[in-house]
Amino acid sequence: MKANSSTQQKKTGADTIQRLMAFGALIILFVVFSLASPYFFTLSNVIGILVSTAVNGLLAIGVTFIIISGGIDLSVGTVMTLSAVMAAVTVRNWGMPNIFGVLAAVLTGTFAGAVNGLMVSKLKLPPFIATLGMLNVARGLSLVITDLSPIYFPLETGWNRIAMGSVLGTIIPGFDIPNGVLIMFGSALVAGLILSKTVIGRYAFAIGSNEEAARLSGLNIVLWKTAIYAVGGLFVGIGGVIIAARLNSAQPALGLGYELDAIAAAVIGGVSLSGGEGNILGTIIGAFIISTLTNGLRILSVPQEWQIVVTGLIILSAVYLDILRKKASAN
User: Fold this and answer.
1) What is the pTM of this model?
2) Residue 81: predicted pLDDT
3) I need a labelling partner for 48 at 20 to 30 A (CA). Which of 123, 160, 194, 209 fits?
4) What is the pLDDT of residue 21?
């Protein structure tokens, strides 16, 4: 019992250090880019960083549940796009109120997540293969449904105000923080409570730490893995709502590459790729690091190809630090 308590204390301490390191890295990025360019630390640019983080943050939240359970999801980007397409079809083509468009997007993401979970848990497909297949299915459906053309929301629907309007600004003049940012933070709060205070969160950690032990203890792995992937898909569906509202359209060719940024955000924030470790706060910090880095390099006119190289190096560094952290907690 004492050994288990000591191991848990080491693990908790390592997680805290990881979050502090990530937050410190975020502060350093802000300081460096602020000194490098007078255009970086301005209100409009900071709001731009917040807005760009909203979508990746939501996708990263969804991925966090799945990685903690020992899986991976490569389909979050294209499922987000399919969710946006279904919202557009509901509102634009079927003439239904915005709330039904939001429900269509969220249900699409949740359903795709549940299908991924069933393929992994019931059919025993490797998560990499199952979600890679869903990536292509979702991408193909988006192109088929839209007939390869974007679907634009009519201005009178006010769809873009879901993400780009500011409820807070109307309540407190001057605090014109876009709704999409508030939705991301609200989703992060709910996700954090689900992960730390509910059965599905506890089972996600249990399955990710040792799936065989969880099965022997009586857990229905098929049920709970499916539920975990479905919860991840729910947040991806919300991401689809936000991206559609930002662009005021559903762009069927969008989505590829978003999954890499989402996974990177989770890993940078301390989610272990081997499963069983992670938290939502660290994931959100990781999402801000990705957005801040991309924004800062763009302001400094760094070529896009080098931006990709830098992001890749950061991902590799984060994975290596995760390996070192696990070794330290094991000792």
Assistant:
1) 0.93
2) 98
3) 194
4) 82
Does 183 reside within a domain?
yes
Q: With CA atoms as reference, report the closest residue to 83 among 110, 60, 64, 61.
A: 110
Q: Using one digit for the tens of pLDDT, what is the confidence trace for 185-208?
A: 999 999 999 999 999 999 999 999
What total number of domains does the chain contain? 1
Angle between the N-to-C axes of helices 221-247 and 43-68, in degrees from 0 to 180, rounded to the nearest 10: 160
In a domain, 114, yes or no: yes
265: in domain: no
Residue 249 phi, psi (nearest 5): -165, 165
Asked if pLDDT for residue 13 goes beyond 60, the answer is: no
Measured between alpha carbons, how far is residue 159 from residues 156, 182, 183, 249 in Å?
8, 16, 15, 9
Tokens coding 140: 């193909």
Q: Of 313, 267, 277, whose CA–CA distance to 14 is shortest?
A: 277
Q: DSSP for 270-311, please give it.
A: T--TTSS---HHHHHHHHHHHHHHHHHHHHTT--HHHHHHHH
pLDDT digits (tens, 9 = 90+) for 30-52: 999 999 999 999 989 999 999 99
In a domain, 326, yes or no: no
184 class by beta-carbon count within 10 Å (0-12 exposed, 13-18 middle, 19+ buried) = buried
User: How does strand 249-250 pair with strand 151-152?
Assistant: antiparallel
Residue 9 predicted with pLDDT over 60: no
pLDDT tens per residue, range 91-132: 999 999 999 999 999 999 999 999 999 999 999 999 999 999
315: left (phi over 0), alpha (psi -120 to 50) or beta: alpha
Q: What is residue 236's three-state secondary structure? A: helix
- Range 290-309 average pLDDT: 90
Measured distance CA(218)–CA(209) in Å, rounded: 15
